[in-house]
UniProtKB/TrEMBL annotation:
Gene Ontology annotations of biological process type: methylation
Protein name per UniProt: 2-polyprenyl-3-methyl-5-hydroxy-6-metoxy-1, 4-benzoquinol methylase
Pfam families noted in UniProt: Methyltransf_23
Stored InterPro entries: SAM-dependent_MTases_sf (IPR029063)
Keywords: Methyltransferase, Transferase
Superkingdom of this protein's organism: Bacteria
Length: 287
């Protein structure tokens, strides 16, 4: 394993000079995460992480490290600044309220990719037991300044350490578009494992059926990976074991692009082709 770490550092040293300082800062953290994942995979007795696929998962994780570094052109603090330029602050409280519809005060919530902790902060104000995880040091530092219960951790590693039937509600809000397919399947399996019976998963992600979203927003973020079709995500959730999986669309066609105002019949067709239900999709299912 040590030789793999040395190879990793050697590869990192070949990345272009203008990213060197950021890579050096992250290499130690990534190597530590890789080591922790290897230990967890070797010790776990969970059926979904068997000994037979340990080497493959370590290899995949190793590839994810290099892929995430090569895709990221912005530094940690720059990424948040970039995000804020496009954040829709309209009815923020109503949006957060809608996310926890049906969640009770005695429930336990986990927000994977919690970012600045807006959902965690809101749910704690409502008396809900909430925890968040993120791989961004800046985001976690910001959350801790607010006194929020958060951890700096990769989702796969963190979920591997949690006990079965721990949470009532797990959210992944604008996270899965950053995760490679194989790793995402493992995360879905582990979310299912840590959810209590009848516990729920909630996912929000860009609607890649929408040509408008795909061309205008999806590829503006260099950390977004290959688009995943909404129907495919729904199918994988069902195969993971989730029941009553629902797929809904945000239905938020921009007013100045709504072609139905020009001609109802042809406008509706154009809207369907260009927007396909809106900018985001929402998926939820229960254990």
């Amino acid at each position: 394993m040590q030789s793999e770490f040395h190879t990793e550092k050697s590869n990192l040293g070949k990345i272009k000079t203008h990213l060197q300082s950021d890579i050096e800062k992250n290499s130690t953290k990534q190597a530590k995460l890789q080591s922790e994942l290897a230990d967890l995979l070797k010790s776990t007795k969970k059926e979904i992480l068997t000994q037979a696929n340990i080497n493959e998962k370590i290899s995949d994780f190793n590839h994810d490290i290099m892929e995430s570094l090569s895709n990221e052109i912005l530094l940690d603090d720059e990424y948040r600044e970039w995000e804020l330029q496009f954040e829709n602050k309209t009815d923020k409280e109503e949006y957060l309220k809608s996310l926890i519809s049906g969640v009770n005060k005695e429930d336990k919530l986990l927000d994977i990719g919690c970012g600045a902790g807006e959902l965690i902060e809101y749910t704690q104000q409502q008396g809900i037991i909430s925890k968040g995880i993120d791989i961004s040091e800046k985001a976690i530092a910001s959350c801790r300044e607010k006194g929020l219960d958060v951890n700096l951790s990769d989702a796969l590693i963190y979920l591997s350490t949690e006990k079965e039937n721990t949470y009532d509600y797990v959210t992944l809000i604008h996270i899965i578009e950053h995760i490679p397919p194989k790793k995402l399947r493992d995360i879905f399996n582990l979310v299912y494992f840590v959810l209590k019976p009848k516990g729920r998963i909630f996912i929000e992600t860009p609607n890649v059926q929408s040509l408008f979203t795909l061309s205008r927003y999806y590829y503006m973020d260099s950390t977004h990976l290959r688009p995943k079709h909404p129907s495919l995500i729904k199918f994988v959730l069902e195969k993971t074991g989730f029941r009553n999986v629902e797929l809904n669309f945000s239905d938020d066609i921009p007013e100045n692009f709504n072609f139905s105002k020009l001609d109802k019949r042809s406008g509706d067709v154009l809207n369907e082709i260009l927007f396909s239900g809106g900018g985001n999709i929402y998926l939820q299912g229960s254990k």
